[in-house]
């Protein structure tokens, strides 16, 4: 972006992608973190991009309205793509959205995703040969697109930074703030959003996390999302 | 609510309060957690209440649209109030909103808040004699309303469950899910939102958190928010 501050300093634009049905917290976490950066340090701004500036649903009862269209912010410095369930898998076959992602990513210094947002980046052809994270139940679906799934909270491979499921976007975004503005600023943002997590039932016990239990749920989501796209359905192991 | 499921089972409504300028993640975290509960276990639903079903701004570039008006859901089973900065402090003097909170809280089995949302509950007269959490920079402001600030991630005092700043709403909401539907369900929700936090720069070092550094920032927010309300300004230590 050629936007500048009052002092003529260029403003780096951190753009979040909104599309119908995305998972609210996939955007809400990193958007809050990056907006705290923008509120704290001159030279950054956050925007939410959508096809139109109109209300769209999320996977919660909250509807949201983007702040800008894709056309209005063609060259963000940082792009962040949230994930979701059925609507996100369906969006893997949405050539209009994938073209938007390719276009916005082209000049970005950082291309990031949260949860199954990495499946959208993968479907757009952007993660070939890259390590990538995604929601733990969907890791296998990165493979057909030439990406290597990683079971980390987030993984950085060049300009690509992809996070695990939903809440992992907060950790990833704090890393991003550190990368963009230094660790001191990241710690300050962490203080402002009081991110000192204490899950009331402790950390996830991954040894007890039974992916097989959720297999019908994943299969059902694939079937529902890709009814009109048998090739992609088969490619994803459906 | 008298809403029932197809099998005639009553539905418990978890209602989030939206008002202009609230902090996105204060709602986004617990709304995602509670919506995952509603998606997983029959008998629960989440709604977002507002004065009107119209877009309103948050403290990020994302605008949001409530799913229902206050009038449409007069008796939620659980009420969750997000906080914010200047708009939330200003809302402490908004008698219309405070009356909405009192009315919605009247029959609720749980009244919850995130961050400075507890200041709204306090201003509505609901936290007198209660222990309460809030954003770490705003704890003192609970005192004039007869609440006892607690420096915990969240605190439960009878039917009141109040969380610390912003991201603490996720921890609080998982506790709520445990209270409403049992620990197993809470753990399942935790898995679905992959809440296994790993702050990239570690936990907050509270010994190094310098509240004095942020005093001018808090003072400025109070001044801006309560310009037309000198009595409340003075009561809050402005």
Can you put this structure into words, describing what you see?
- 2 copies of one chain form a homodimer.
- By secondary structure, chain A is α/β, with parallel strands linked by helices.
- Chain A has one domain: Rossmann fold (3-Layer(aba) Sandwich).
- Chain A is built from 8 helices and 11 strands.
- In chain A, strand 3 and strand 4 (63-65) form a beta hairpin.
- In chain A, helix 1 runs parallel beside helix 5 and helix 1 (24-40) crosses helix 6 (183-192).
- Chain A is globular.
- Chain A starts with 11 loop residues before the first strand and ends with a helix.
- The model of chain A has no long low-confidence stretch (mean pLDDT 95).
- At the A-B interface, helix 1, strand 2, strand 4, helix 5 and helix 6 of A face helix 1, strand 2, strand 4, helix 5 and helix 6 of B.
């Amino acid at each position: 972006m050629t936007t500048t501050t009052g002092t003529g300093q260029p403003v780096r634009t951190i753009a979040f992608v909104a599309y119908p049905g995305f998972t609210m917290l996939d955007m809400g976490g990193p958007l809050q973190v990056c907006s705290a950066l923008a509120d704290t340090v001159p030279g950054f701004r956050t925007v939410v991009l959508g096809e139109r500036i109109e209300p769209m649903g999320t996977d919660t009862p909250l509807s949201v309205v983007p702040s800008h269209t894709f056309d209005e912010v063609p060259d963000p410095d940082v792009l962040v793509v949230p994930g979701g369930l059925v609507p996100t898998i369906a969006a893997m076959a949405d050539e209009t959205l994938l073209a938007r992602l390719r276009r916005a990513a082209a000049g970005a210094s950082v291309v990031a995703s949260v949860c199954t947002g990495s499946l959208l980046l993968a479907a757009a052809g952007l993660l070939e040969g890259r390590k990538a994270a995604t929601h733990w139940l969907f890791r296998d679906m990165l493979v057909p697109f030439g990406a290597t799934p990683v079971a980390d909270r987030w993984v950085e491979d060049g300009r690509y930074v992809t996070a695990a499921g939903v809440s992992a976007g907060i950790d990833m975004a704090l890393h991003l703030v550190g990368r963009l503005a230094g660790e001191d600023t990241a710690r300050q943002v962490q203080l402002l959003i009081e991110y000192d997590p204490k899950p009331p039932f402790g950390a996830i016990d991954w040894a007890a996390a039974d992916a097989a239990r959720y297999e019908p749920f994943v299969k059902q989501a694939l079937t529902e999302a890709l009814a009109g796209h048998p090739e992609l359905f088969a490619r994803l192991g459906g």
